[in-house]
Amino acid sequence: MATKYVIIDASEVSSVDFSQVREDSADTLRYNLDNTKTFVKFEGSTPSFLDGKTEYTHSQIRTILTDEAQGWYIADTQAYLDGL
Known about the structure:
By secondary structure, the protein is an alpha+beta fold. The protein is built from 2 helices and 3 strands; from the N terminus they run E-E-E-H-H. The protein has helices at 58-65, 78-82; strands at 3-9, 37-43, 55-56.
């Protein structure tokens, strides 16, 4: 089953049910450079707290995270991206 990725606003982190995503807690999330957005990963059915949000494939999220214009990219994050 393919992993799906959803970008959320940092203000929405409190609504994340960490038992339904691959991250363990708010402390394990990766935020964008200005700390206004983060993303979660999941497999299977979309958790209800993510209903209506754009879902990305692995390829799509890698494109976003490596594009400086998107506000995520840090030059030395290749090892992190390889682990996605």
